[in-house]
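agent> call fold_tool(seq_1)
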Amino acid sequence: MSKITIKEVAKRANVSTATVSRVLNNNYPVSDEARKEVLKAASELNYKPNGVARSLKKNKTNLIGIIVADISNPFFMSVARGVESVVSEEYNLILSSTDESPDKEVKLLNMMLEKKVDGIVIASSNIDSSAIKSIIASGIKLVLIDRKVDDVTLDYIANDNFNGSFLLTESLIKKGHKDIAIVNGCLNVTTAIERFNGYRAAMNKYGLKIDKDFILQGNYSASIAFVETRNLIRKGKLPTALLSANNSMTEGIMKALKSEKVRIPEDISLVSFGEITNQEFIEPKITCIKQNPFLMGQKAGEVILDKLNGKSKEDNFKEVVLINEFCEGNSIKSLI
């Protein structure tokens, strides 16, 4: 198959070859509509700029963009610090938050293009890969953290979400729990899918049925998890245990339980994928999967630095899955 040329991209996008060059090299202002059409055409044709074309981008900005799902979550702030610890001698960072909004993520990616960043580290909140494909087509280096994106092959640094969730659920089952609810993130991100699958696999292994009323969507938000948990309690159908799929939601769940005078673990057991803030000062200590977000950030920083410095081949992608630590607290009541 012959290699796709810049002329073919221009024809598909119905623009001039000069406009295609300006968009892909990000070295001259063009209209938003033209940029969108060029990046779409380049993605559809799987166009890869050659070395000469890429060299037209004469000015490095020494900027790396970091796009996270929730800038207020200590997990993502620690990830950002990890990236910074590796790249700070050569690059400055632009840190942005999608607030779990796919639309906002697209706007932030376009902003990164306008800023002419050299690379992007992203925890995507978007099940649609078209925006990510546009970034790839532009030639900007990109590393995924925490979450995968469908239909793209990229460097990826993440936690072992399935096994972590499986272990948490199993820890409840081994203490005699059968009615176990999960407060999960939205299923448009892979972490939520993988953590739900781990929960379901553990329930299936021990022959336990999942009550559909016990599957709650907290959108990885403390405030939404608070409302979902409170609503569950007020329905009068309380599970014996709750699995929270991230640290922010755990805090929202705990506030809801306290507001409704439901005690941990006397009235309900609670486990968390992710350690809550100031856990050492809180009773009971929540049994959790302890993550290492700083290490995740360091690994992502190392990978993108290698890409930017030409130490890693463009088609050589790494997938790093970090092993989590199971930390037993005193938030599980034994029913045996």
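agent> call fold_tool(seq_2)
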Amino acid sequence: MKFQIELTERADRDLRNIFLYIALDLGSSKNAEKQVNRLWTAIHSLNELPERYRRYEKEPWYSRGIRIFPIDNYVALYIPYTEEQIVRIVMIMYSGRDISEQLNMV
């Protein structure tokens, strides 16, 4: 069965900000487009077997079912809702950032 992928407003904004950072700050629109396409393709692969990635080990996020999916130099944090067959992408961020700190801002 295929799951539907939903992006939160935060995750949608994260994708746009990643594009803008690479395109404007790093000066490469082409690379920005390629990176966002890779992220989008990887995220959409969660429509099958969304529980294949580990849960984020820190509380309260572990109990809430948040999973962490590494993609290139980024991570997507998401929650699979198996009964509803929905995968909700909570945020997408550079993997070098403090995940707990970022989750506290959501």
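agent> summarizing second result for user.
The first strand starts at residue 4 and ends at 7. Strands lie at 4-7, 67-71, 74-81, 86-94.
agent> awaiting next instruction.
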